[in-house]
Amino acid sequence: MHSKLQLKLKPAGIGSYGRVYFAILDNEKHVAVKNLMLLKMAQMISRLKHENFVEILGYCVEGNVSQQNNL
């Protein structure tokens, strides 16, 4: 079973590639949600693994969700 975002997203700011929101998953995990402007950027960032980078849990393309295994 995977977690879902609560409907209420709180704006956190705007980055160079899109808006950032705070959200809470059903399992009470607090996450940041970033609205990326480019699909390729989302795909590339989701593969990055480093202690100084936040992990990308998944991304959505026009209503269709593509998820990593740990979402």
UniProtKB/TrEMBL annotation:
Gene Ontology molecular function: ATP binding; kinase activity
SUPFAM superfamilies given in the database record: Protein kinase-like (PK-like) (SSF56112)
Signal sequence, renumbered to the chain: none
Assigned keywords, A-Z: ATP-binding, Kinase, Nucleotide-binding, Phosphoprotein, Transferase
UniProt-listed InterPro entries: Kinase-like_dom_sf (IPR011009), Plant_StressResp_Kinase (IPR052101)
Keyword ATP-binding in record: yes
Protein name: Protein kinase domain-containing protein
Organism: Zingiber officinale
